[in-house]
Prior knowledge:
The chain is an alpha/beta fold. The protein contains 22 helices and 17 strands.
Amino acid sequence: xxxxxxxxxxxxxxxxxxTVVWYGRDISLPDPDGEVDPEAETERFADAVETARAELEAxxxxxxxxxxxxxxxxxxxxxxxxxxxxIEDAVETSIGDGVDAANAVxxxxxxxxxxxxxxxxxxxxxxxxxxxxxDRLLRLLTDGERVDLSDLPEGSVVLAERLxxxxxxxxxxxxxxxxxxxxxxxxxxxxxxxRSLALPAVxxxxxxxxxxxxxxxxxxxxxxxxxxxxxxxxxxEAAAADSGAAVVEAAVETADxxxxxxxxxxxxxxxxxxxxxxxxDGVGLYRTEFLFLDRETPPSEDEQYEAVREALDTFPEGxxxxxxxxxxxxxxxxxLDLPEEENPFxxxxxxxxxxxxxxxxxxxxxxxLLRAAADGxxxxxxxxxxxxTVEELDAALAALDDAVADLxxxxxAAERPEVxxxxxxxxAVFMADELAARVDFLSIGTNDLTQYVMAADRENERVGDLxxxxxPGVLRAIHRTVEAAHDGDAWVGMCGxxxxxPDLTELLVGLxxxxxxxxxxxxxxxxxxxxxxxxxxxxxxxDAARLAATxxxxxxxxDT
Length: 560
């Protein structure tokens, strides 16, 4: 086969070289016209559901420990689909009409999958979640064998039409050199898992991927978004040598002396030590949702205190920025009364729920944080998510004052930490000067900020080109936020995905960011990029980039 390059979307700034292994999920259904015992088939279906639930719960726990809590949360949605009464009723009705359990499951899920495929954004991605649940049930009902993706030959490059969360979570970076898929985008589950595992990956290659035969040697370049078929010796060696930058434990400065804090985004306690091992200066985003999941009641004040103390003790010389509970949107907690909203990402989420209706949960969490700030080894900072108005911030600050008073009345040691606001909405950008005057720092969440500034759902592949934080509109929003923070004597950080891209480090340093927080896997690369950056030059190039009129003009500036 002649050497050629296929292009898709790079998911991880890593390259790998290996031999193609094709992965498919073919399932043979029984003859739909066969004899059926409805009672026996109903029992088989119920048994399959129970087994599937046990598998999902086990995979969720394993994924949370190995990849991260936020990534593992997708299995909660799978369990909800498994228990969906609409699907269950449809299956049982079909069985009652004389259809075997496997074909009944295939039919019941098929209509829902087709319906989701016709939607946009995150709702369209639900089609893959449904496929995952359907195929799991069909495998159990047909006694199909599950391919063990965790035990592939060393040096395998997995190619597939698509990889579900269950598939991707099995991949062992010690054995798998990378993967590529026909479908998918940078924010698909497979891409997110790949970044968490530091696994080279290219998604959305298209049907041309299917022309690559099993056993072919390829290079997966997750930075450039390319798949190089039958590489030569130099290309093979270059890919094999791409293990990333060396870990630097100390804080880093630009070449001309500007210190930039490089922190980690953390979703559960198990991620703290690995982040420290990768050279994180601290934690720039500690998601607290993990404390509220996989349980029937909210965590106590003491439980939350201990979790935050653990983070502070892991970084005794650093700063740990804790985000207060951020639920709503795609984050759901079964025991809370979350509304069914037509567009939940523009609805009741983040600080909006903390101020009402979850005021008691908020007060409990604030007390735990204040206690941890007084007792923990490191420096605690607290930030409020999805603030859009000054009134919301003032109410949150008042709740913090009430928590301080409550603890003082109880004679409990409390310390007021640094306080900040997440900048995720255009309103917060426009009001950044007023917000900065009231807090110690601002933290830019570029994933949501980009989607709201560009009016482009970050899960909708049809508008994927718009969901790019290097669009001039987003860069101007970042610049405006940085200026407002510094004018208000506040520091400013970034905890969105953009912060972890070493190709954008010079741009972000030039825009004036004081702190960058990211998945732990990219910390060494970003630290290396900071050291290679001249702040004075970066500032000039960043000014040119934000003043550009088009995204292509931005890239002409930052790629030179």
